[in-house]
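Researcher: Final request for today, and then I'll write up notes for the group meeting. The sequence and the SMILES for flavin-adenine dinucleotide follow.
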Amino acid sequence: MLWLLISFILGIVSHIIYSKIKTSTQVSTDIPQYDHAIIIGGSISGMVTAAYLTKYFSRITIIESDDVLNDELMNFTPEELLNYRCRDKNPSSLGRSGVPQIYQIHLMAAGGQLILRELFPRLEHRLINKYNVRSYSLKNESRLVINDVLLNQNLTEDFKWLGIDRFTLEIEIRKELCLQYGHQIQWICNSKVTQLIVDQSLNTVNGVKYRSKQNSDAPTVDLCADFIVDCSGRNSPSMKWLNEDLNLIIPTEQIHFGCGYTTFVGERMKTGDSLLDSKPIIGCTANSPEKNNGWFIIPIRTIKTTNENSLGTISTIAINSNNSEYPPTDSFENLLEWVKDNLHSDFYTILKSTKETNGLKSLYY
Ligand SMILES: Cc1cc2nc3c(=O)[nH]c(=O)nc-3n(C[C@H](O)[C@H](O)[C@H](O)COP(=O)(O)OP(=O)(O)OC[C@H]3O[C@@H](n4cnc5c(N)ncnc54)[C@H](O)[C@@H]3O)c2cc1C
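Model: Predicted protein-flavin-adenine dinucleotide complex:
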C-alpha cells in the first residue's frame, strides 16, 4: 500500500516537472530565430536594443562611430568617470565625441529602469556598490515643482529614483553587455555608417556601408543583415537615406526652440534650512512661455566626509533657460548673481552653500 502511495506521489511529481519542462521548451521554440542584426550606434539605446535582440538573433553587430571600447574608457575609476570632460584638457582624445555627455540632467522614466533591470540584472547592484550611488524616495526625499505644481506631494504611490550620471551609466551598461552577451555581439568601433544598402525593387534595406574613421581614405565596407536598427541618436541620417534611396517620406515636424544649460558637479553643504537640506532631489521645471528658467539638483554619488557641514552627496546641478538669456558660465560668482536675479530664492540659498568641484559647463541646442 505504502509503495503504491509513493509511486502515485512520484507519478504526480514527475508529471508536474515534465509539464514545466515542456512549457519552457514550448516557450523557447516559439521565439522566432534569425541570423544577423546590425545596430547603428552603440550608446545607451544601441546597447539596450542589442541586449534585447540576443533573444532573436544569433549574431548582432554594433557599428559605433566612437572608440568606446578603448582601455581608458573601459577602465576608468569612479573618480575619473566623474571628471570626464571636466578636467581633461583634450576630451576628444578619450574617444567620445559628438554625444553631449556633460552634466545636464537626464532622466529615465520608471519604464526605462525596469527594462535595464530585466536585461542587466546585476547593473543596479554594481552601480550601488562600485559608485556609491543611492536610491531615493521620490515621495519623501525630493521636492520637484513641475509646471508650477509640487509633484511629489500628490503621489499616491512612491517611486524609487536611482541617482547616477549618464556617462557612468553608459560605461557600466557597456561592461555588462560585453560580459553577459559578448559571445553573440560583435563591436565595430571607430567606424561610421555612411549609407544604407537597399533593394529598390523589393523596397527593403539589406545592409549598411561603413568606413573606418582611423583611415579616411579606406574604402567603405558592405555588411548585410536580416534586420537593421538605427540607434544613432537625435542627428540620425536615416530619414534622409530612406528618402534618397527608397523615396520613403517620414512625416516630421520642426520645432524651433532654443535652450541653454549651465551645468556642474558640486558637493552640497548645509544651508541652515533643514527642510531644504533634507531633500537630496530638488528642482523646478521651466514652464515656457510664462516662465523660461528651470533648475535641478540630483545626487549622483554619496561620499564619506569628515566635514560636518557636508550633506555627504555629490550632485549634478543644472540651470536651463528656454528662448531667453542663457545662464552664464564664465564664473561661479556670476552664475550666483544671475541665479539671485532670475530664480527662486531656495535655489540661490542652496547654490550659495554648494562647493563647485568640476567647473561650469554649457550646452546650447
Ligand atoms: C540637454 C539634453 C538633455 C537631455 N535630457 C534627456 C532626458 O532627460 N531623458 C532622456 O531620455 N533623454 C534626454 N536627452 C536625449 C539624450 O541625448 C538621449 O536620451 C540619449 O543620449 C539617447 O541615447 P541614444 O543611445 O539614443 O543616442 P546617443 O547617446 O546620441 O548615441 C548615439 C550613438 O550613435 C553613434 N553614431 C552616430 N552616428 C553614427 C553613425 N553614422 N555610425 C555609427 N555610429 C553613429 C554616436 O557616436 C553615439 O554613440 C537629452 C539630450 C540633451 C542634449
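Model: The chain has eleven helices and 17 strands. Residues 1-27 have pLDDT under 50 and may be disordered.
Researcher: Thanks, that's everything.
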